[in-house]
Fold this sequence. Notes:
By secondary structure, this protein is mostly helical. It has helices at 4-20, 32-39, 43-55, 73-99, 105-124, 127-145, 148-164, 166-169, 172-176, 178-193, 197-225, and strands at 29-30, 59-61, 66-68.
Amino acid sequence: xxxxxxxxxxxxxxxxxxxxxxxxxxxxxxxxxxxxxxxxxxxxxxxxxxxxxxxxxxxxxxxxxxxxxxxxxxxxxxxxxxxxxxxxxxxxxxxxxxxxxxxxxxxxxxxxxxxxxxxxxxxxxxxxxxxxxxxxxxxxxxxxxxxxxxxxxxxxxxxxxxxxxxxxxxxxxxxxxxxxxxxxxxxxxxxxxxxxxxxxxxxxxxxxxxxxxxxxxxxxxxxxxxx
Length: 227
């Protein structure tokens, strides 16, 4: 019994990665037996991992096993607004820490380097990798905020959004936002570097909500294309 938490944690991490990466698509039904055979572990850590994933909003219980959650349009909209609020908070806290002299020059350099990496990938048209690096950029800001609760909530919201909006995240309009995304990142970094919490929060919130508007436009375009 004492080894259960130790074994469940890597099982949780692996299952989460399989879901977030798209290996198990939204709506896919999976059973404890299937997962235990695939991961070569007993059903106990699988059961515990699925319980945690259900709490994360990534799976829901079914009569047999679980199903990967697909957020509907309203829930995605709500998730983006929550993300916007959390990212505004973490940007504000990070800028406040900079004002108070708590951030090192190396930390700001890493943030700039991450933004440049994201820009390069987007400009090359490698949108799948750019999306991953974009998430890493925003998570870096959340880490610099030094608020574990906000970081944990952001991770869960990001996962839910990625699973339910994979196609729009890699859509044409995201690629068309290349220059705009890069400029928004640079402005956000500048506000943080200057120690301007209010401006950093405003920019972070606007950045997320612009992404939401872009994804909504992609979704509408897709619907019109099927008529």
